Structures are given as C-alpha cells and as structure tokens.
Amino acid sequence: MADAGSSAKRAKLAVDERDEVATVDVIARVKSGANISGLDAYRALYDSSLKDSDEFWREHATRFVSWARTFDEVCGGTFADGDVRWFAGGKLNVCYNCVDRHIPTKGDEVAIVHEGDEVGSVTTYTYKDVQREVSRIANVLKSFGVRKGDNVAVYMPMMAELAFVMLACARIGAVHSVVFAGFSSESLRDRINDARCKVVVTADEGRRGGRTIPLKHTVDMAVAMCPTVEAVLVYERTHADIKYSSKDHKLTPLLEAARPFCPCEEMDAEDPLFLLYTSGSTGKPKGLLHTTGGYLVYAAITHYFTFDYRPGDVYACVADCGWITGHSYIVYGPLCNGATTLMFESTPLYPDHTRYWDLIQRHRITQFYTAPTAIRSLMRFSNDAMAKFDLTSLRVLGTVGEPINPEAWRWYYDFVGKRSCSIVDTYWQTETGGHVVSPLPGCTPLKPGSATLPFFGVETALMDGDGAEITGNSVSGVLCIKRPWPGMARTINGDHARFMVTYFGAYPGYYFTGDGAFRDKDGYIWITGRVDDVLNVSGHRLGSAEIESALIEHEFVAESAVIGCPHDTKGQGICCYVVLTADAVESSDLLAELRLQVRTTIGPFATPDYIIATPGLPKTRSGKIMRRVLRKIIAQETDSLGDVSTLADPSVVDILIEKANEAI
Ligand code: 6R9
Asked: How distant, in Å, are the alpha carbons of 380, 575, 650 from that of 216?
C-alpha cells in the first residue's frame, strides 16, 4: 500500500504561522538586468495595470504580439453577462507569431530542443525547421478536409511533432484538443465525442521511462465509438508493427509528399484557439475554450516576466503538452517570445534520479519549471549524486500544479538553485490560461510556500462564507478574481450555462477559482488547496465524481465516495470508500479489481491509493455525504471530526475508523 498515512506528519504551517515566515531575498544570478527590478517597480506597474487597464494591455498586446490588423477595443463584456472579449476587431495568427515572424531575425536559431526518453537522444529544430515541419502537417490536415473552426483531437507522446500539430492547427485555424496520452480509451472517447472531432492525430506507440505505451491501440478502442471521426493520422514513433484500418493513415509518406509551406489563416482575436478538458467537481470533464488574441498575449507576457526570459536563454518546462502547462509554457508563451524551448519526453527517475540534473547540465538550462510532486520524489535521494552536476546555468526555478510545502521549496532553493536562483511558485489553472499569482524573479522577495503576489492586471479577492469580500490582511477565504484578464477561458465547449454557473455563479461579479487562500500580513497569497470536490494528485486535477462513477460501473459497487488524502510525494492520494452490493463478497481480489476499474476507466494516474469497503457512508439525514468526516478519518485526524450528531447513522463513523486503520 502507498505511504499516504505517514504524510500527516508533513510540515504544514498553521495559518497564523504563515505571518511569521520571513522573506528570502535571493536574486544573485537574476539581479543584473532582470526584466523588472525590485518590488517598487512591480507595485508601480501593477497599480497602473489596474488603474489604466486599457492602456496597460494595449501597450503589452502590441509589444508581445504582431497583429495583422490592430484591435478596436481592448476589453469588452463582463463576468455577469458572460461575454468577456479581448482585443476585439484585432486579426492575427498564433502560429505566425510563434514561428514565421521570428524567421528574419532568428531563422537559424534553435526554437525547440527535444530530449527523448533515452538520455542524450536530442533533436534540435530551428525556427526555419519548425516552419517547414508545421507547414507539412498543416497541409496534410487540410488534405483531410480540416478547415478553420474544425476540432482536431491530439493523443500523442511528448514528441516534437506534438508541438508541430498544435501549431499546425493554429496555422490553419483549426481548434486542437490535446488529450494527455495517459488517459484511457474511455476518457479519450468522451473527449473526442464532446468536441465532435473529425480527425485524430496520434502515434503508433509512446516511450516513457523505458516503457512502451500502446497509443494507437487505445485510439482504436476509443474511435470505434466516435461517429464523427473520419481519419486517424499516425506518427511513427517506434515503427511498431501495429494494425492499420481504412480510417488510419501513416503520416511518414504523407509528410514527405506534403508542401513544406502553408500560409497562415487570418484569425479574429476571439476565434477559438484550442479546447482543453479538465475535471470539475461534478459530472463529466469540461472542455475549456481558449481564444486567439488574449490567450497569446497572456501566455507571452507571463512567460517573459515570470521566468525573466532573456534572449540566449535555454528555457525548459518539463511538463507534458497534454496539460495547460505544456500549452502555455512549452509551446505558445516561449515560442511567441522567440525563445529556445525544451521538450522532455522522459521522467525525472529514468534511468535514475539524476536525469534532471544531467539534462540541466548538458543543455545549460537557464529556467527550469517542474511540479512539487517531482521535487518531493527527488529530495528523498542523497544530494551527493546531484552535487556532481554543474547546475550553474540556472537562474530561475519554477513550480506549478499544487501548493509546494516549505520543506520541498527549501530543498529546491538550497540544493538545485544553490541559493542563487529565484524560485517562482506559479499559481494558475487551465481556466486562467497563464500565471495569475506568482513571484517575479529579481523583483519579489520570496517566502517558501507562498505564490506571493498577483500578476499584472489580475485583481484578486478573498471571499467569506456569506459571499462578501474580505478586506485587510492576515485573513483566509476563497480565492476569486475581480475583473477579466486576457488569458481567461471564454466558455465550456457546448455548455455556456455550465461555464457561467461554475465560475461566476458562486460570487456574482467575481471569477471563482475553486481554491482557498490565506493573505498574510504583507498581502502575500498562500494557496491552501481546493475548496470543492476536485482532487489534486501529483498536480493532476481529478474530480471525485469522475472516480465515483468509474467505481459505480462495477456490478458489485452499490455506492461510493472518493476523497483526497495526504500523500508524501503526490500531494494528495486517492481514497475510495465503497459500499458493496448485497450479493458481493469482500475480498482483496475484489478490491484490486475495483482499483483496476478506475485505472482503466480514467487512466493510470488516477489509480486509487486506498479502496475501503464499508457497510455505509456518513450521510446527513437529507442524504448528503459528509466528506469532511471521510477526509478526517483517512488523514487520521479523528480527534477533530467535528459534529457528527447530524448524521443519519452516527455509528457508521466507528466502523469507518476501524476499516481505515486496517487499510493504512
Ligand atoms: C496550471 C495547473 C489548477 C489547480 C488550481 C490549484 C492547483 C496550481 C498551484 C496550485 C497551489 C500553485 N495549483 N498551481 N496550488 N500553488 N502554485 O496546474 O492547472 O491542471 O487546471 O490545475 O491546481 O488547486 O486550482 P490545472
């Protein structure tokens, strides 16, 4: 069983202790020439970004992005009306901005460095190379009838070609929907069907951590139940001998035959750029829609300031393009800024735990961006092996995906950054498109565990249980954003009503993040985690409802309740309580089967840490499951269960405690 139980010990700061945390003033390697220098400069620019918002965004939209036609209006619409738009009337193409416009000045400079699964299997692509490769696949897509506004599903490993496909879609005005290659065929099927995709791009197999992932096989199972799919285009990553049916097309010969130039489609600022599915607290995953102008401006400006990007840098975000982090900070932000961006196909532990350090040393990486879960898994090893690598190229170290515990922050700062790098704990979401709360290197004094201060143009607010805004400092509440920002998602595919209810229903006039936060005495923001039923497992969002419905599909499950539990490396683990049907016999085999059921329905990253069979769930008299009680039980905080007298059957609590203790 996983080591979730012991994690209760993990250092967790109590709210009032956060006010006592001193700032760390590190900026040695960043200081000279930082893109913005000092807290005063930040405050001045931040204030003007709110006070003269239109002017701020007009100036930066023109500075970071090239427009085929300038926009007539900076921002229009409101949260309340659900019609927010940015840069209306502006025309542009995202791929032109990320590739073509850099060619006159840096056509022969490296745009993408790809490090494959095996150590040192490196391929580099200049901006000219990228233009050629993107054009080829764009022309192939067109030959399959993909046109402006069509949705294309992408289910690929972290090959450079994944970025090419994304850029190719942007080039011809198609809307990509990248599905993380760790999702199951059922998850993929639902996403393809929700977006009515007509083409799916995949690879024969993936390679990750020395293992082979049968991607095309998964696509076959999904597409069998996707009536809209006309063609499946297959990159040959491993050249495995796989089955090709009449809808399937090997890309190798098609790309060889394709013209290596494809013109860029002129897009409206508010035309869709991509869909990306993410878990919500209820029901099926939401296909969030991002549009062209605002998203690109926001990805580029945040990449520039948060990572203190400078020409000549080798910037590396080791996330997967299947998540928003890969979209904004591997592909769109860095390439829009003309950067050299690294794509990493492998894992931090392959072939051993020094892979990242070797990567940094060999590529002379200047900015390194990863997740707290990876940091926690690496800090278990002795630092001696790391000490043999030259990490002095680093200037900025980033984290994303979940709150970073101060212990992990310290280790990242002391040992990876050698106390000379800025740590940027970037808080944001699929919905926000880019960073909304983050330190800026050489600018924001750091506090281990705090995402610090809002990005330019982002007005944060904390709300109380009655829906009122909490003023002042040293306060906790629900984190909201008070005004539109360019990178925000515009809708949920096919369900604008759900978009409105989910994000603007809870606090009218505010965007609701779903996260809790503490604002300390200096106004610094500390994210405390989700306040809804969304789990965050190794930085991946999972809805408890999704896992519950996967369990319920099993013939022997009558009822289930899924909650997050503390976990040493993953941040949160998955704990499932199941009530078996009357004719079921509880056995370790059956529980293993249920675990497998979740794994195959959603994907391996959703594998439960605990499955606990129980005769009943703690429910109120109105039938609502008291998840708080379940959370406390698995976290072994049974002395603070709170009031359980309102439960329909309070005796179930003792049984649950006993069962949980057995499982741990
Ligand atoms: C970018 C990304 C979003 C959720 C978000 C929050 C958590 C992300 C965080 C963080 C604390 C940070 N989260 N960054 N929590 N500190 N620096 O991860 O997007 O997959 O949509 O997840 O992740 O709970 O609401 P996404």
From this structure: 36, 31, 50
Pick from 501, 625, 655, 653: nearest CA to 563: 625
Cα separation, 589 vs 384, in Å, equals 42
Say how many Å lie between the CA of residue 527 and the centre of ligand 1.
9
Query: pLDDT digits over 248-257, tens only?
Result: 999 999 999 9
Name the residue with the closest Cα to ligand 1, atom 3.
429
CB 482 within 8 A of CB 457: no
Q: Give the chain's count of helices (H) and strands (E).
A: 22, 31
> Is the CB of 536 within 6 Å of ligand 1?
yes
> Three-state DSSP class for 334?
helix
pLDDT of residue 32: 63
pLDDT tens-digit readout, 503-518: 999 999 999 999 999 9
pTM: 0.94
| 489 vs 501: CA distance, rounded Å | 14
Pair 537, 570: CB distance under 8 Å: yes
Q: Is 428 in the pocket of ligand 1 (CB under 6 A)?
A: yes
Eight-class DSSP state of 483: S
Q: Using the mean position of ligand 1's atoms as its centre, give its distance from the Cα of residue 452 in Å.
A: 14
Which ranges of the chain have pLDDT less than 50?
1-11
Residue nearest to atom 18 of ligand 1 (CA): 401
ipTM for the predicted complex comes to 0.99
